[in-house]
Amino acid sequence: MTQVATVADAPTYDNRQDFADELRRLARTDERIVAVCNDSVGSSNLTGFRDEFPDRLINVGIAEQNMVGVGAGLANAGLIPFVCAAAPFLTGRSLEQVKADVAYSQHKVILCGMSPGMAYGELGPTHHSVEDFSWLRALPGLDIVVPADGAQTRSAIRNAVADPRPTYLRIGRFKVPAVSDPKASLTRGRFVTAREGTDVTIIATGTEVSRALHAAEILADQNISTRVLNAVYINPLDKAAIAAAARETRAIITAEEANVSGGLGAAVASYVGQLERDARVPLRILGLQDEFAPTGDAQFLLDYFGLGGDKIAEAAAEALQNG
Prior knowledge:
By secondary structure, this protein is α/β, with parallel strands linked by helices.
């Protein structure tokens, strides 16, 4: 665990660079690692991989369904394929293949959703990937991993190579500060405690973890002790951490750069609703609320949907006050 003192002015980093560097580092000693992409060598940060391993990069062109099928075939042959594409097209255009060729068939493909959420900003809803959690959580046997910073991105890639399984790995484009211990390893199906607290719990994922920590700083000035859980894994879900939050704090807030229908908040709400009555607490779910995003850059859109630290803090204070 790491305690982040301040995050508002911390330097920020592009997780895609850590993804690219770690993938190349591991590929140098493991010839099973290959990459598959949809004419997205540059945007998937695979240029260095292509230059170093030209025979281990397969570019299928703009054919996402075929791309996932090729990845499944490579996995069936004993390779470890990292199938990389912009997240909206990897998940939206290829959903049937992800379901049938990866999840149902249990082929050990690592689906890398690049630039997810609203990272494409002004390109609009066609290029936003805010439905991916909702679609993919419905598929049995598919891990969903959302690193919050570069260190977690590297750890997720190491885990994927050491113990390959059908996985959707969300690689953020929006620059974020470091929020985790660079020496820590991720554990499958476990959240990471980013900050301890006893009054309210914020469960955040991906880009929202640093904003949740900012909210905790704001709440500390109001004498509200905030626990921040970094939901690196959305599937499998860390039910033990959620149950502990419900027992030990007085409210839960979830924050995700995604549609709230079927995402992290929905998963948490579904589980909390199954707890014993005296273990249930007020819950607020923050994210996109049944609407397509307006035009604007990524920072504007996060603020527009109430996903900044100030709005998360307001939601937490309101939940504590009004239940």
